[in-house]
Amino acid sequence: MASVNYEVDNGIAVITFTNPPKGFFTTAMVEEATKALAEAENDDTVKVVIFTGGLPDVFIRHFSVEEIILMTEAVRDHRRRGLAEPRFARTALRMFWENVDNFRKPTIAAINGYCGGGGCELALACDIRLAAEGDYTIGQMEILVGLLPGAGGTTRLARLVGVGKALEWVLRGRTFYPSEAAEEGLVHHLVKGDVLEEAKKMATEFLDKPSVALQAIKQVLRSSWGKTTADGVDEEGDLFANLLACDDRVLEMMKEYVANDHKLKKF
């Protein structure tokens, strides 16, 4: 059964995602995670938040393609009826990643397994990314089902590694083993052993630092680019929704992926 677990210990909140057997992210899990994040935001005893996966070798594999197929029909029906359409980037579903990006306390992604699509976008929205050693992959592979990232992956990836690398990776659907991700700067550190324990160890460094200063550091660094993240994510969300509404090949590719037992080629 899919779940989002929230625990706090000594000022460190841990949000754990579990959805057996494959570890996909779902709308229901986003709603749970949004509530957990709000709880951490409003709890003055919480100084730092860690995100991790609850299944062996899975952080978040990616967002449920079955749900995106349903979104496709909903978006198309909306447009067929000529209804006014809110920006896709500002829907309740999409705002979870924005809330992580704009969270005023330090955030750490303790990547302990497959981390693709929406899972990679969550990691990119975090301040610090740690990845456990292993043969799993990390990356934005949406093009392999005919899409582009839909929750901030293009903008945040480009800001992290540069437009040139981001273009190649997203256009190809390229993914990386943890050691490769560390070499490319996609994650900050490659961890031998328990990545969650390493994340907790790092989190203790923030416990005695003033919250106001930490928040100010995040604000000034995240707003330092000429184009705001919101502008980039708005554009990305519009393009994502347009693909769902207009491109039949996208729907075909997603259905082929689901029928093929969720298997993608590593690039």
Written account of the structure:
This protein is α/β, with parallel strands linked by helices. It has a single domain, classed as 2-enoyl-CoA Hydratase, Chain A, domain 1 (Alpha-Beta Complex). It is 46% helix and 17% strand. The chain has eleven helices and ten strands. Strands 1-2-3-5-7-10 form a six-stranded mixed beta sheet, sandwiched between helices. β1 and β2 form a beta hairpin. α2 packs across α10 and α2 runs antiparallel to α11. The protein starts with a strand and ends in an 8-residue tail after the last helix. The model has no long low-confidence stretch (mean pLDDT 91).
Quick description:
By secondary structure, the chain is an alpha/beta fold.
Write the layout of secondary structure elements.
Layout: E1 3-9, E2 12-18, H1 27-42, E3 48-53, E4 57-60, H2 65-80, H3 95-101, E5 107-111, E6 113-116, H4 118-125, E7 128-132, E8 138-139, H5 153-161, H6 163-172, E9 175-176, H7 178-184, E10 189-191, H8 195-203, H9 211-222, H10 229-246, H11 248-259
Parallel strand pairs: 2-3, 3-5, 4-6, 5-7, 6-8, 7-10
Antiparallel strand pairs: 1-2, 8-9
Helix pairs in contact: 2-10, 2-11, 3-4, 4-5, 5-6, 5-10
